[in-house]
């Protein structure tokens, strides 16, 4: 496709009205068209017909083949970047005088044209959701392509600005919620899979269940993150106490005292790295405290996704426990061990101690725990309350953590102090019970657990995509 | 107030829960407190208690005395700016290698900490509206203070990102609209003042009247910009045809063919320079065309706010018109001339010619017309359709434009072409009738009309605060 | 118009679809047409085209001249009544055997065809509001026309069924309410006139003001009844304490203990005799108690609309008070007496005693107080709490009750007992203070106060159209 | 339970406030309590505490055992009926003079106290739905109990008044509808069973599918009746064309010309006999015609629920067809015949002729067709358009109608004429094609088909509970 043909098309378009644009242009090849239109959007034309151009770019983008998609990202990476000459001139001028106006000129020179591109793209109705999906596609590109990293940096920065917590809306999800949203809850739940609509209803509808999600006004029907809560008499030790099917629906807890956050899932892959979980938990705590003044305790029931992987490295455990205790671990090699409670005594002792050690002493190179879910809740200011033996006896629970689960507790009066301790020197605040467990472990020099770790997130406490799925 | 006292307070606060923060801190002096808290918000503390800190900063800010407010802005200007050393280092590194990662580091170094500050401030519920008002206060500071300009640049950039057209919602304003919004329409109308609720109702409720506004989801009850429309049989020559009180309300126009945009007002001083009017007009055209297929013509009935001021400079007119015609202008010095139609013939001829000349030939140094309303509509791609003799005989209409008004016409098939012509070389597209008027004017070398002009806006076509109030 | 012409028209109509009906039939004369169409609606045709016929009848009805309207009501009265022969046959059959099926047949025979007529009329969208207005017109017909009474009986019975309390919706009215509803609040307020939108806002918007209304889902934008409430520290003695303009809006009552119902107005003349006030007050008490647990006392501040008229009949007062006290009343003939507090002492004593007597001892032939507002609140189970000297010094307040007002108190634990006492033997429950006043009055044999009374309402406690306007 | 105990309880209650009533009274036995409270509701007490009493009656009612429930209905039947003495007196007075006021008195005397009872019961929030369910329970009582018939008559009359079409709201049901309503659509669909949420979504969500329901404002989340519609290029001959799973969801019909009503289901057993279907279909036709102007034809695809039962009676068919054709019917005894198209030719000819005859000539004693679905659509003014061979090859379709289905067509210009013809003399309006089929059938004297029929409904065209489930 040559430029003048597109030019002509666009002229025709302009003469015949916005509504005709899509049809006329659809005859051209999306792979070329999307780049041509992107150029047009950045030109003066973008001012008069920006909405139509943006719409068409997004329509083209949606049908691009993988190669064309990648070519489009490369175009963004290579063509829409600051002009090196101008940057150099501005940098030199700044070094000369370091004045206000030189700084302003330098800021303008380094500002990525991609910001303006995405802002103009967002002119089209419904564009925000499509731009989020564009970032999802970008994140799925092979990491090797370093130039694309700069595109992601720009895009993420913009999304961070748009998805500022001040723009998010908390909504309760229940049986009155439109099906279009509910089916996404089923799809996005990543901790304890929802087994269809009946299971969903058991989690949303009963009097002692709650679900809350953050939404953004520009993303209709698309939850960003959601949390499932059970209102109970005491903190549960096992997920089955929360999810069992036969719960007497007829007998609601009259004055629940504990709110249990038993599942938190991020929904938008394209918003990866933009943290909502901290705000969600805290606002839900506020909402629940207002609605049910009987609630006094706010805890999670959380998985330990990396525990078994860590334990696998035999030497770690070996050096930590007395040999006698260590021997109990062989039971884990016995299929079906979890169903023979009469053999558990020693294993339970060994595993819970090791888990306490894993949380408190095992650190990644950034000085914080290796477990992503722990990093998330501890970073939010929660404390590690309890390690639950056979908290999750599902296949996944056994595979990931030999069935262990933990409760993290959000105590309003401690949150800031805990957070500071954790942020400043990686101190993991734990309950007395967990502390006792740690004492039973032989002290070994903390050694960074590099191999297991995902690259340390650049910023602050980030939640994993879901509690269970953090690597 | 010394820091350690605040420190202590905040520790107490953290131990007693967010809800106590405001009361405890209220005892301190807002003028100091606001700055201390701003520092805290930018520190690690901001991560755990950001929402509470942000809320308190805004509460303090609201009650600041003018001096304290200015001190706060100075703090933002001086303390929250990029670190010059780091900028210098990054600039030098960039000049050495001009690589991807050097560019990234330079971008990070020049990025203003104020962006992060305002983003964190926006954590508090309802903060967005207060940040917009903060910018309004900032714009009202004396211009002399150059350092504050950088604060405004940062803030405006952020607001531009947040108030991206993709996030705006078009809503019809009518008699079903909550009173809380309607009273703002009364307050913000800046072109033809609304004389109370009865007048408002006459503009919103009848079958042949429309009003539309853009809203942002984070600014409840706050229109950003609105336009008032009359559906008519033909383009009106005078505003009285639109606003007269005695209109037979009982007789709606059955199949209106002309939609008249007779008033456009911006509402938020704090969003000055962020342009919504272009998008608003175009989306309203679309909405109306869908709702009433009989509508074929979309025109404005607009004021010419600077015409009389321009004409005052005698020499301009003198050189333009033949002396005989020019003499007719003396009638303007006669109070009440507008009510003596029998004397109008010569004056009308002279004034309309001069107005045509004023629009087409008189340019500011940036090569575009001096009239702000003309700049706005022509920049949007409208054409100058008609000059209306005694279009507005109100005191204001006579004072600003000797009673003249104009129709700008939005012809969908021409919008892009007109816009390009105007943007590229300042060409003012006019109807044949206006062209004929211009021909009657003696050609004089176009001369920049500097004295009259507001400083040329940096970006694209910007609408005035209201059509009538652009200086 | 002859029938066959209409017949033909309707046939044409049926062939061309509902949407054409209005235009075609509009050419006929509404006065004849409305009756012809009413007959058609009651025939088999009504089943297939009921919606269109009903719509057209209502459209015709709206433009009927007074005479034609009356003729239409006469048609309903005379043509749409039970067939006397069938009633006679069914009555005789019943008298013979008094069986189930004879009763059923008699019930069917006496059932008024007007019920079916109005039910079919209600098929048209929006018809309910128009039927309510039809009853308003009917009530305005001269009373002499006895035959129309039966039409009203039928219509009222139907409306009573449709406007059953179970279908009403309580909505708070505030500054977020659409203007279309607010302007009706202004129009319908009948106790203390609302002086435009500013006054309205003072009653709705402040933190310590509430307004609630009942709505029916089929009457969009039309409140049925509303009550205005002030939240205060103590029961007010004068309406000026509630309505004064200069109230410090900035200083809301932090923990109000008294909710004052200072105005209740019915809105729909066409629903006269269908009582909503009792339900409204009780539900608002519940709502407020839930919203503000600090509220402990619920009182009205009410007018005494008939007191001055009663007192005018000199002999009543003469026989009641000692002569010395009675003489104080001459001050009332002195214009401006209310502004000379130094002269009030004796008058105050005399008037409040007389008012207490008026409430407690003066009865109409049905054994209940003569004052309509008193009948309403006492019938609801309230007690008479206090008589307020110069509670309303407005021209109206002076004219109706020499400035007196009263507080009725709704004490939840007494409501049923008070109601029973009042309903069974007309006992007026009063506070100790009022009882003391009554003791100061010479006992005279209670004598029915016939001349003053409106015809006794047939049913239970009915509120007046508004508290102030009950005759 | 003796009365004075309840009396005491209620007094206590009255003194302690409404909110205590439920707990206090719960100690008594519901079976006795419900009757005592019903008496109280009808007494003066009902005026002061009606809402609380009504709530308690409904709470008791819900937990009644079958026997107690029946006893409650008997109480309504026996204790809440007109006073025979008063009726007799009024009847005699009427027979004497037949005047206005005698008629009024007679109407009052025969008016069933049950009307007032149910109206007062409806005072409680949410009562309407419970009263509808009360009627469902009543309809399930053994028919033998004749006295209960009068209760049903009263209740149905009241519900007919409350559920007047003017109060119903049409709402589109789609994938944005709350799950609480959607699960009811699944439950209530009675024509073509919905196989879970995926199937539901296929019927609601695609661009060429619609579903509409009537709701009543007092019955939250409870559809009264709904219709499912497919937008197609031509009228379908078989239900599989509408419901097949593999429909290409991606390819919506661009300009559909036919709207197919393929399923209509009533939802509330307690509203049996109150007809909504006629209004629903006609309003949906209007809505669709407005939304999609390309739609020209409105047809159903309907079952013939009684055809096979009618045909079973051998002699009917025997006398109608020539012997040669009749013989083809033996194939029906062959399991799996429907899957052998090569053998269908004769059978198809015979069955479609018989079906045409069944619709046009076979009448019940009231002179209308025996098939309930036919009675419904023909009574609405539709015409019988086409008989579809193997329109429904499901087990149910084969069992009920040997796989036949029909299209009824709603032609706006014919509706009233068709309805009149059908209502006046049972004329079944058919298309030319069906007429041709009928001609091929030997004329036999129409003979009432009594045995098959449900008791003829008292009123007008009533739809079956669902199209498929009419007996």
Explain how this protein is built.
The structure is a homotetramer of 471-residue chains. The first copy, chain A, is α+β, with helices and mostly antiparallel strands. In chain A, 50% of the residues lie in helices and 9% in strands. Chain A is built from 22 helices and seven strands. In chain A, the strands form two sheets. In chain A, strands 1-2-3-4-5 form a five-stranded mixed sheet, with helices on both faces. In chain A, strand 4, helix 14 and strand 5 form a beta-alpha-beta unit. In chain A, helix 3 packs antiparallel against helix 4 (45-62). In chain A, 46% of the residues are buried. The model of chain A is unreliable at 1-24 and 450-462 (pLDDT under 50).
């Amino acid at each position: 496709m040559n430029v003048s043909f597109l030019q002509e098309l666009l002229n025709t378009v302009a003469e015949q009205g916005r509504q005709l644009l899509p049809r006329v242009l659809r005859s051209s090849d999306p792979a070329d068209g999307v780049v041509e239109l992107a150029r047009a959007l950045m030109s003066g034309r973008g001012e008069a017909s920006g909405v139509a151009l943006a719409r068409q770019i997004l329509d083209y983008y949606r049908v691009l083949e993988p190669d064309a998609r990648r070519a489009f990202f490369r175009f963004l990476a290579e063509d829409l970047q600051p002009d090196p000459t101008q940057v150099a001139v501005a940098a030199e001028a700044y070094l000369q005088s370091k004045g206000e106006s030189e700084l302003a000129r330098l800021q303008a020179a380094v500002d990525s044209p991609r910001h303006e591109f995405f802002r103009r793209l967002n002119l089209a109705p419904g564009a925000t959701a499509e731009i989020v999906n564009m970032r999802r596609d970008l994140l799925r590109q092979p990491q090797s392509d370093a130039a694309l990293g700069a595109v992601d940096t720009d895009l993420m920065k913009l999304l961070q600005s748009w998805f500022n917590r001040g723009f998010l809306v908390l909504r309760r999800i229940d049986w009155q919620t439109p099906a279009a949203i509910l089916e996404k809850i089923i799809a996005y739940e990543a901790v304890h899979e929802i087994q269809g609509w009946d299971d969903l209803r058991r989690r949303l509808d009963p009097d002692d269940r709650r679900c809350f999600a953050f939404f953004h006004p520009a993303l209709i029907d698309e939850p960003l993150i959601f949390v499932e809560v059970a209102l109970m008499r005491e903190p549960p030790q096992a997920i089955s106490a929360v999810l069992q099917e036969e719960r007497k629906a007829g007998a609601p807890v009259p004055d629940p005292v504990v709110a249990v956050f038993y599942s938190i899932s991020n929904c938008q892959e394209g918003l990866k790295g933009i943290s909502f979980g901290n705000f969600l938990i805290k606002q839900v705590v506020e909402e629940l405290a207002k609605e049910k003044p009987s609630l006094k305790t706010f805890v999670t029931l959380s998985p330990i996704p990396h525990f078994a992987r860590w334990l696998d490295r035999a030497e770690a455990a070996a050096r930590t426990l007395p040999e006698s205790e260590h021997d109990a671990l062989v039971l884990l090699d016995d299929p079906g061990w979890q169903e023979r409670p009469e053999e558990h005594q020693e294993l339970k002792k060994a595993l819970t101690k090791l888990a306490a050690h894993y949380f408190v002493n095992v650190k990644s190179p950034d000085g914080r725990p290796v477990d992503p879910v722990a990093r998330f809740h501890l970073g939010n200011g929660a404390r590690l309350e309890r390690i639950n033996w056979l908290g999750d006896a599902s296949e996944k629970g056994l595979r990931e953590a030999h069935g262990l689960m933990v409760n993290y507790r959000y105590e309003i009066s401690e949150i800031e102090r805990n957070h500071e301790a954790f942020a400043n020197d990686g101190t993991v605040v734990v309950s007395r019970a967990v502390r006792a467990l740690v004492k039973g472990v032989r002290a070994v020099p903390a050694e960074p657990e590099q191999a297991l770790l995902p690259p340390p997130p650049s910023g602050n406490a980030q939640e994993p995509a879901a509690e269970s799925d953090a690597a």
